[in-house]
Amino acid sequence: MAYLVVEKGEDAGSVFLLSEEEVVQRNGFRIGRHFQRDIVLNDLAVSRDHAEIRFENGRFSIRDLGSKHGTFVNGKSYETSEVHILSGGDLIDVGNTRLRFFEDDPHQKVQYQIGNEDLTKYISSIRDNSITYAALSNAEQRLSLIYEISKAIDSILDAEQLLEKIMDVIFETFNPERGMIGLLEQEEKQTLFVSKVTRIRDEEGGNSSIEISRKILDTVINQGSGLITYDAIADRLLKGSESIVASKIRSAMCVPLRNMQEILGVIYIDDRSHPNRFGKEDLEFLSAIGYLAGVASKNAYAHKTIAELNRTLEDKVAQRTRELAQANQKLRESNALKSRLIEELDRSNKDLEAAYALLKKTEAQLVQTEKMSAMGDLVSGIAHEINNPASFIRGNLGMLSEYISDFKKLLHLYDEIEPARPEDRRRIEAFKKEIDFDFLLTDLDELIDALQEGHRRIDEIITNLRTFSKVDMAEIKPMRVQEGIEATLKLLLPKYRQRIEVIKEYQDVPEIECYAGQLNQVFMNILLNAFQAIEGEGKVWIHVACREGGKIAIRITDNGCGIPKENFHRIFEPFFTTKEVGKGTGLGLAISYGIIERHGGKIEVESEVGKGTTFTIILPPNPDTAVEAESSFAKFSRRI
Fold it and tell me: What is the CATH topology of the domain spanning 2-106?
């Protein structure tokens, strides 16, 4: 058994298993940039078919396959026809990637576990020095994908639909051969799946019957951490599990579905054909998806419980209403002496219906508040986790810029020294021309600038996520409404910027005392309604100005479809929506109305069908400031 460890390059820290039997069966392992090679390197300087490793006469050997930049072993170049017998510790250079050959496992284990500190300092040092522009771009893409995933699954409240959606995302992202997502039985606290979704690549239909290693599932559930194995059959920690051997599993990953410290289930994917199929970054990303899925699963379970309680309450209220109606009928048929009792019962029935309506509204607000609170916690946690490596990148970029500046000064000093022999000077000039030395110096500065720009964009995303995640703030704090509006726009505009123009007019208004996170929720609801009301291209105007008494007026206008007159008086009712099924809950404006009332403010609405709608929010300088009482629903008026 032998291994290749990537010491330098895009794949630094990766470990490739070299099984003597498999190398012989495949007639050699090929190293290259093509995705179908046995050892795939993400290095543009590596040829599609660069080199080949064979196992003959009990020894591993390597030969070049006519690559563009050649193959080097311990600094020596080998031609296509030459074969080099490998020894433990040999350094192999292909393109810009350096690998070290080991006769035995350099980690003393094949698997890597998140939350475990079993990786050697040797591998850590390799990874710490492998920050590139590609890594920055990948981090930004995965952060954006996590945000898109959280939006997609947030609206799904059915457990089966939720698991199917998560499985779609996993197969689109990792393209495994097989996959399974299971929710554990929570009451019995046993490793029994009450709900499970399985899938096999290229097989039509879902919930295929697949055999999964119980050893891997039990390890993840008991330890509460993700697990990856580069070659399950050879993995020493799995100790040749019968289920692994029977299922012919090679590469596999398994992570828990968790909500805080509670294990709700597992996500499992594998590949039975190829070892080294998944990497550490894949495990970390799958773990992030597992956390998102865990929070969403918990929300779905809570929604189901509330729905069942609600149905029970509705049945009891309906039964009580029927009983009261029957009693009323009997009382009306009796003599006039009972009329006062009948009137009292009628009043009681109306009070009960009013109480039930209030209960429904309160319940809806609680559900939405809990969802927004969970989303705030999730987004805040993601921003915090991304900020740590981003800070590390920022520090290292500064040092890297200084190092490169020092190297350039050293090169200029070398240029000022006249070589003793003219032929040395000519050889130096020829080499500088060959590598386009002046271009390299200029391009190096541009690469550093590009890295710094990438880091700036990550910082901007983190700042926006932190600003928007303050939904659950319970304290009144000073805030500039422009900042809340801008943070909301930065989250919405990536989806709508191609067809909607936003025109902003902000006056210099003072800070107000408010619940900042709740106002952000109001801005999100109204702006999202404005964008969705516009079919095709359109415009949205945002105006912020001062009014008498230190009040702030925020006016948001769109040129969308407008609100029909027959629906206008109901727009603030809970659960009323004109959107398609699945695109609206009817809670956004109802909750927004309650939030503005809590701040002592009011919402004014104007609309005309075919021309657009204007929402005007008026806020006092402090929520305790009283405002003139308003009706629960705005009156209809046409825009001038």
Answer: Tumour Suppressor Smad4 (2.60.200)
